[in-house]
Write a structure and sequence with these properties.
The protein is built from 12 helices and no strands. By secondary structure, it is mainly α. The N and C termini lie far apart (60 Å).
């Protein structure tokens, strides 16, 4: 699939699993930090395996700890990407990115998204393939206010990390099957998030429609 990063190769998936097995929640934090810092470690593998690990006998961390570590890692890693953009050092990624699987067109996609949709992109892109890894760069270049960037990043990461971890819990002992189908996870999770947003919008509109207007006669 064209959107799948080079990160979704078996060696890196196995690396992510090994780090979590060795370091627990700290490993989740580290891996998610790397992904948001423009190093394409697959968050799908990280959080799915983390979720599956929470339902093993005598787990080393809880579901809440896994989600917290994942979101915190994403936020801190995004600060690094933001800093590179803010300081005008995207050239470092353009020059050395190929060594770790980053392609120039990945950066261009994130740049176009930010140009077209503005600061709100930082929130929505955290739930999108490719863009979520690199959106911090154009946000930094645009000098987006740091704390607004941080809040949008955290709010966007929470549903993504939460749903991936929950999917891992449901996968449980079937993890070995899931880890060979990671390229489909983006579609499934994104579809679930979109469906949830649509449901909330429809519910809100129906709620407004049921309210009487200001000139409606009282009973």
């Amino acid at each position: 699939m064209t959107f799948v990063l080079a990160s979704l190769t078996q060696p890196l998936v196995d690396f992510a699993i090994s780090v979590i097995n060795d370091l627990g929640a700290a490993g989740i934090f580290l891996l998610m930090l790397l992904e948001s810092a423009c190093i394409p470690i697959p968050s799908e593998a990280t959080m799915l395996f983390a979720g599956a690990a929470t339902v093993k006998p005598d787990p080393s961390f809880t579901f809440v700890a896994a989600v917290t570590a994942g979101v915190a890692g994403n936020v801190v890693g995004s600060w690094l990407g933001y800093g590179l953009g803010y300081l005008g050092r995207i050239d470092l990624i353009e020059k050395h990115g190929k060594k770790i699987g980053i392609r120039t067109h990945h950066l261009e996609i994130a740049d176009r998204w930010f140009d077209q949709h503005g600061e709100a992109t930082v929130f929505f892109s955290r739930m999108l393939p490719i863009v979520r890894t690199f959106i911090s760069l154009p946000a930094g270049v645009a000098k987006m206010p740091f704390w607004r960037f941080t809040i949008y990043t955290a709010l966007g990461c929470i549903p993504w990390v939460l749903l991936l971890t929950y999917a891992g819990v449901k996968a449980g002992e079937n993890w070995d099957h899931w880890k060979h189908s990671l390229e489909y996870v983006d579609y499934v999770v994104a579809a679930g998030l979109v469906a949830g947003v649509v449901w909330l919008v429809i519910r809100a509109r129906r709620g407004r429609g049921d309210q009487p207007g200001p000139n409606a006669p009282s009973a």
